[in-house]
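Sanity check

After download, print the first record. It should look like this:
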Amino acid sequence: MRRWNGWGDEANGMHLPQSAELFLKQLIGTASPLQDASLEEVIKKVPDSRLPEHDLISTDPEIRVRHAKGQSLPDWLAMRSGRIAAFPDGVCFPENRKQVQRILQLAQQNDIELIPYGGGTSVAGHINPRQSNRAILTVDMSRMNQLLHLNQESQIAAFGAGTPGPMVEAQLRAQGYTLGHFPQSFELSTIGGWIASRSSGQQSLRYGRIEQLFAGGYLETFDGTFKLPTFPASSAGPDFRELILGSEGRFGILSEVKVRVSKLAEKEEFRVLFFPNWRKAVEFCQSVVQQRIPLSMLRVSNSVETKTQLKLAGKERAIAWLERYLSVRGCGEDKCMLTLGLTGSRQQVDSSLSQLNKMSRQCNGVGTGTLLGKRWQENRFKLPYLRETLWQKGYLVDTFETATDWQNLDNLMQKMESSLQPALEESVNNNQEKVHAFTHLSHVYGQGASLYTTYLFRADSDYPRTLERWKKLKHAASNAVVNNGGTISHQHGVGKDHAPYLPVEKGELGMNLLNRLCNHFDPKNQLNPGTLVSNEVSK
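Expected structure tokens:
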């Protein structure tokens, strides 16, 4: 059963070793958990629906609760406290394109706001209803979850937009193919959501980000169906697929998507290397990607994240042995861990590995074989469950991410991490409240790389004060990103949380164009209002 107020399946979790809990206490202090509201308590707060009766719509209070929030930290606090400001008036579950069109017609005729809903994994406020004088209908796409067609000659697959990651891969792999798109939210997020938010998968170095995989499909709009043909390339004016990528439900609802797939690789393995310091690890990454060594993934943790991950792993004896070995090999206190993926034919993997070994030695890297890589592969989608474990101990964890050019990488990372600690200036027992922050590169490009920062802090004495702590941290980090050469989002999209910072990146002309596009597709501001652009759209 899926959690109504957290991540994933209730049967799944992530253990926090006792040594890891002690590590956190030493870093940021002893914490106390806040009390959770029950589902029954929250259901009682759901108001009567303002929607007309309709055969596609459910107004069941529990279903409305389960569609009221995503997975951002303020969403988490709202669900845990039971203080949810707005609920959808109903939820519909279309099963085909014609039913999506019917819902759009209903919304037009009755002045209803629509919120497209995929897997509910948004960490930027994409799917949250706002308080509104109009009825709000959430459009849950989960029943449109099938592989509709696979053209093996062109390697184009068509899916219902609500197909979640595991079903995408299962249906393709049954026929010897893969999409190769593996975001950390893979367990729950959907193919339509990936496109709407411009998602990036962990192995995008081989398969590409979603914009390289998105070949075409159908967008249902108030004016009819917008068909996007699947050309391999075209110079016939602007590519309208770019309009849909990252549009976050503001222009219409994706009903069917067509994607470029690949045959399953003959061989795949993941390996972990260590480097003496951050600069050596980054130098290695930059050299590998700019020389176009065929890998599927490169991920490097800075020294603080490396230390944190080793502590959270538990297994103290094994880690102590590893630390001694690495120290002898020149990787001491400042060491950085790098995880890489090799995917392709056996010959490709062996050739790449030979090149990597040589380049690693030039940067004083130390290989550890495939054991740690296998552990990473086994747990690659489990990390979101750690939030639940930490919450029960009184700790909160959140992330933010960006991308920038290589020459700005170190400057931006330093500005991002250093922005967090001063944000919590209040004193607790005459001591400044502490924040523990660390960063990794999750995706690399010839031009630059993404920076993904995680930070942990303690819950305050109640929910409102805890939310205020998050707001201070989020604002400080977002300002540091946009004012120091980073994009407000590399892979999580804009939603409502990042919308206030978007004008710094897009500029006045860009925001005017974006507003005009929203107004063109949605003149009455009914499609996911407040998302992507925070102001009301005017004619």
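If your output differs, re-run the checksum step. Summary of this record's structure: The two ends are 45 Å apart (CA to CA).
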